[in-house]
## 1
Amino acid sequence: MKNSLGRAIYALANIAFGIFDFIWRDSIALNVSHGRHAIVLLIATLQVLAGLAIFFPRSIRYGAATLAVVYIAVGLTAIPFILKNPRVYANWGEFFYQLALAVGAIIIFALDTQKPALARIGVYAFALCNISFAIEQVEFLRGTAELVPHWVPPNQMFWAWATTLFFALAAIGLLTGICARLAAQFDTAMLILFALLSLLPVVIAHPHGFFRWNEFVQTFVTAASAWVVADYLAGSPFMRKLHRA
């Protein structure tokens, strides 16, 4: 795992995310008002430094631990809004988006420190994130469909429902161990394709649109997190035990 491609992609994606935060000096996920810009710059610095640290064997665990803490802390800023409006799923969704970003770091840290139980928790956490992705797509189905390029057959609504189903099936696979590695690989491919086919044309057409840029970069970090999960499942003794059961 220390030399896995997923780990390298995850590190690079976080460095890119940090640079993005430096450029825009804002974050749609950070639900604070006081000292917002200073906090964003601190997060950006930690993203870049932690991403770089993951490339070096002696500092992998420190970089991974930093990123896990950062993303979980950002996710926790959504808790007051969840408690205030528990029926608004967008607030729940924001927490799980941040958890998905943290999963890659959790697994990298767990493997570097030889904590297999923590790595398994990371897999289960990513399954919960997939459930959240599916729920949020159902909640905002029309908006999801509008993100699908018009030229992709058969139609936009078909792919909105199909990707919702794929997220749900991925969650089942990760929770049960049935085709879990394939589920993580499919997640990775689906997220990368979504970023390239749906979000990239929008950010090219509207380069000054902060929201879509943020979504584009965050989607790539989520895809990198899924890649780390897939790499872990490829050689995990936990998976071999599940298949023998």
## 2
Amino acid sequence: MGKGKPSIAVDQKKLLLVIQEIESSGPLANRSALFNEVAAKYNASEFVKVTPAVVGLRVKQWGVKLVTPLGKKGRGKGVPMTDAHKAAMLAGRGQRKPKSEKFAENPAIVLYFEELKARTPERFHSLVESAQNGSRISAEKLHCLECSGYDNKNVTDLVRHCPCNGAEGASACPLWAFRPYQISASEVEESETEELEAVA
């Protein structure tokens, strides 16, 4: 059995003195801030350096009582979002535009959807419009329908029974498992039972 990583030697007395000194003027914002400050101060005069994570491990191992509280993750259950929370969330993720707006700003994509609509039978135009509004599911449906031949009146059946699953040397489409119009396992079983009864 392999050996684990060697334990980092930490001067317990000195580390405790550093913690006491930093917390003497009151608690910090959270334990993460405390461990960062303790590691920086401890490392200033020690040859063997410690990380904030090691400080946290030793505090736990030695059962050190800290003034600094644990930080809070998120807002807490049931606490409503304040305007400050909303502003921070928007700043973090940026003002994302809907796909439809992004598509409308790109001339190549606008032209693509115009051409797609022109070659798609009218009964599937709503799918093209839905894809243009950002629906990936509609785009997947259109891909499968086009691959199976839009004009065939049984096109949805062709998609449902698509052979492109890579079995027995068949081509493998990456969207095969996601194809639309699939029937459930119970429907397959019911269909097979009906076929057997018809033969009997």
## 3
Amino acid sequence: MISQTAEYALRAIVLLAHRQGRPCTAQQLSDASNIPVMYLSKILGSLVRDGLVQSQRGPGGGFLLSQEPKDVTMYDVLAVVEPIKHYCECPLSDLGCNAPGPELCPLHRRLQAVGSLLEQSFRETTIADLMAEGAGNLPFCHADATGAPPTSPS
């Protein structure tokens, strides 16, 4: 339904939200979320450029959310890494699709409707909502019960 990159971005944002303003390194996020650190670093770079995440350098530095979890939706995160595709005309028209003019054929009309419902759900779901559904635990696997990433080995 969504790409692996999109899921990874959501995992990272949820973990940062659980940190409640305490910076977290890319390695700590990688360890807690089971995301390869190099791949995660690229995702974090996109999230920083878009303003959803801040980066702090130096000792005690790392990444943290730029906004409160209640102010960030799943859509906000996905729009950075994987915008939802909208069909303006049937993508098969060059292959002889019989949809008239710029209209959609039945298949792509249905895909467009499903995409719109999905987008609406993502726009209505905040990161705080995801955290609340987890009842104090992360709403996904690979972290301890406090939601804190494991500390890096010294």
